[in-house]
Each structure stands twice: as structure tokens, then as C-alpha cells.
């Protein structure tokens, strides 16, 4: 299957279903409410920009590409009141949620001049992009020579308990052999393990910050809501998806009854690019 054929990179599915508003994104964000240790991702991004820009962002431009419902934009506007912080997203419904300046963009062809932003973010969004190398090229092109680009994504090991539960439910539905633990993320086109090498093609300095945590869950609701939020990205039709979700519900409730809780182990990270290669 070519990357452009994947549902997770389909412009129509992204803008009309998955991110036609922030209901599904907020559902996934809520899963982390009891995360330990808690990682304040917007604060970490803000600190990285402060360090890169030597504490001053006066008159600077910061662009959050794939800004979603604007949690990074909100924080950066607080922390850099003299900077112009632009929220940019493929989905018009998301852009509407973010106060101006905010605009519809496709990261593969950014409507910003060369060397025009001191900081650019692309957080948990590159796995939705058909041409990831082109997207990273665009981030580097718009970044000033002294600027910083921060991307975030998940590791192949992120929330593998959840992946295991869904894979088991799917195998039971299809009557196939059950997956052997541990199950890694599958079908994700931009994983933390690949991100440094991809950024290194466009930046002379690249470093990675790994963020791990645990999320103990005593209720099935948030886990099932998270699974349900991925409906648009699977190859199942609605009836099949509902059937697999019903099996997953039984598995999740069974584990919670037996063990008192399910602990999800998260593993995501930031990859930071500095010194964009001359072009
Ligand atoms: C998982 S959300 C992440 C939102 C936000 N960055 C965060 O971390 O909370 C992915 C976002 O990327 C946007 N997106 C997907 N493809 C894009 C593209 N080609 N250009 C710009 N934004 C895109 C989606 O519309 C969605 O809002």
C-alpha cells in the first residue's frame, strides 16, 4: 500500500472525519489525565524555544503546524507575548478553534517565506502526512538559520498494552491466532525510532528527548473511548468496527475486574532540529 493510499494520511478523512472539530482529539488527550510522571508537553516545547532563542522571542515568529485544538499555541502566546504565534492546520474546523493568527495550511507546501520563523512545531502530526520528507524540508526551509524545529511523535512501544488489547479483539473477531506479546505499534509511518534520521537529512544538529510515563486506569471508559476515536483510520466498516470494539470492551472489563486496573505505559518523544542545512 502506498503512503498516499493510507487512511491516516487521507486529506478527506483527516478534515471531514478525524479532525472535523476536536471531539476525537480531546478524547485521546483526556486519556493522559492521570499520567505519572505528568509531562507538560507545551511547557517543554516552550522551554526548548526559550533555550534556543536565548530567552528572548521579542518580535519573533513561532508557527505551530498541525496545531489541532491549539494547546501549544495557547501556552506559547502566554510565554512569548511579544512574538507572533501562528496556529496552522490542514483542517478548517481546527483552525476555527484557534484564535487568530491561525490559518489553513498543508505542511507539505507551507505558505511562509524562507527563513521567516524562529521556531516551528509539528507535534504528533507527521504520521498524517503523505510525504514526510517534503514536510520536514518545508519546516527547515521556513526556519531561520539560528532557529529551532520541534517535532513530536510516539515510539513503537507507546501504549503497547492498548495495541495488544485491540489486536487481540481483532484476532478473536476474525478467528485468527492471538498476537503474541509484546505487540508494537503497527502502521505508524513516523515513529520516534525513525525521526532523528529523517530530521538529520535537513538539519545539522538533531537531538531527541524521550518521555515515558504510566497511566493507571480503573475504568474501561477512557480506554474504549480512545479505541473508538480511531474508527476513521481502520480498514473495518462500521459494523465490523463496532463488533471488534464490543470484544475489546469485554477484554478491558475482564482485565480491570481481575487486576483492579490496566496500566498503559506511554513512550513518546520530541526530536529537535537546529541549524537547517543550507539550500
Ligand atoms: C493528532 S493531531 C495533533 C494536534 C496537536 N499538534 C497536538 O499535539 O495536540 C494532528 C493534527 O495535524 C493536522 N494535520 C494533518 N495533516 C496535516 C497537514 N498535511 N498539514 C497540516 N496539518 C495537518 C490534523 O488536522 C490535526 O489537527
Description:
This is Class I SAM-dependent methyltransferase. InterPro entries: Methyltransf_11, SAM-dependent_MTases_sf. The chain has 279 residues and is an alpha/beta fold. It has ten helices and seven strands. The protein has a seven-stranded mixed beta sheet with strand order 3-2-1-4-5-7-6, sandwiched between helices. β2, α5 and β3 (102-104) form a beta-alpha-beta unit.
Q: Which key terms come to mind for this protein?
A:
about 280 residues, alpha/beta, Rossmann fold, 7-stranded mixed β-sheet, disordered N terminus, binds S-adenosylmethionine, S-adenosylmethionine-dependent methyltransferase activity
Structural class: alpha/beta
CATH superfamily name of the domain at 3-156 and 188-215 and 266-276? Answer: Vaccinia Virus protein VP39
Q: Roughly how many Å apart are the termini?
A: 32 Å
Extract low-pLDDT stretches: 1-5
Strand order of the largest sheet: 3-2-1-4-5-7-6
The number of distinct helices, counting runs of at least 4 residues, comes to 10
Q: What's the overall average pLDDT, rounded?
A: 93
Question: How many runs of DSSP E, i.e. beta strands?
Answer: 7
Q: How many strands, which pairing sense, and closed or not: the largest β-sheet?
A: 7 strands, mixed
| Helix fraction by DSSP (H/I, runs of at least 4) | 25-40%
Bound molecules: S-adenosylmethionine
General shape: elongated
Amino acid at each position: 500500500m502506498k503512503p498516499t493510499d493510507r487512511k491516516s494520511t487521507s486529506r478527506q478523512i483527516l478534515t471531514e472525519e478525524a479532525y472535523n472539530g476536536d471531539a476525537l482529539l480531546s478524547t485521546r488527550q483526556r486519556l493522559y489525565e492521570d499520567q505519572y510522571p505528568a509531562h507538560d508537553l507545551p511547557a517543554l516545547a516552550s522551554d526548548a524555544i526559550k533555550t534556543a532563542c536565548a530567552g528572548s522571542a521579542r518580535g519573533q515568529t513561532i508557527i505551530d503546524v498541525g496545531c489541532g485544538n491549539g494547546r501549544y499555541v495557547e501556552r506559547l502566546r502566554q510565554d512569548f507575548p511579544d512574538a507572533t504565534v501562528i496556529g496552522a492546520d490542514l483542517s478548517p474546523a481546527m483552525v476555527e478553534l484557534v484564535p487568530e493568527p491561525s490559518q489553513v495550511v498543508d505542511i507539505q507546501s507551507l505558505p511562509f517565506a524562507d527563513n521567516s520563523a524562529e521556531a516551528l512545531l509539528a507535534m504528533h502530526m507527521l504520521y498524517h502526512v503523505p510525504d514526510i520528507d517534503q514536510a520536514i524540508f518545508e519546516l527547515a526551509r521556513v526556519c531561520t538559520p539560528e532557529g529551532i524545529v520541534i517535532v513530536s511523535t510516539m515510539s513503537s512501544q507507546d501504549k503497547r498494552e492498548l495495541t495488544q488489547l485491540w489486536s487481540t479483539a481483532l484476532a478473536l473477531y476474525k478467528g485468527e491466532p492471538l498476537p503474541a506479546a509484546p505487540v508494537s505499534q503497527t502502521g505508524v509511518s513516523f515513529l520516534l525510532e525513525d525521526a532523528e534520521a529523517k530530521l538529520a537529512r535537513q538539519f545539522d544538529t538533531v537531538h531527541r528527548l524521550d518521555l515515558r510515563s504510566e497511566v493507571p486506569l480503573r475504568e474501561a471508559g477512557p480506554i474504549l473511548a480512545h479505541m473508538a476515536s480511531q474508527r476513521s483510520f481502520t480498514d473495518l466498516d462500521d459494523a465490523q468496527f463496532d463488533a471488534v470494539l464490543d470484544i475489546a470492551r469485554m477484554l478491558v472489563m475482564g482485565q480491570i475486574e481481575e487486576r483492579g486496573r490496566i496500566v498503559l505505559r506511554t513512550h513518546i518523544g520530541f526530536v529537535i532540529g537546529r541549524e537547517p542545512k543550507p539550500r
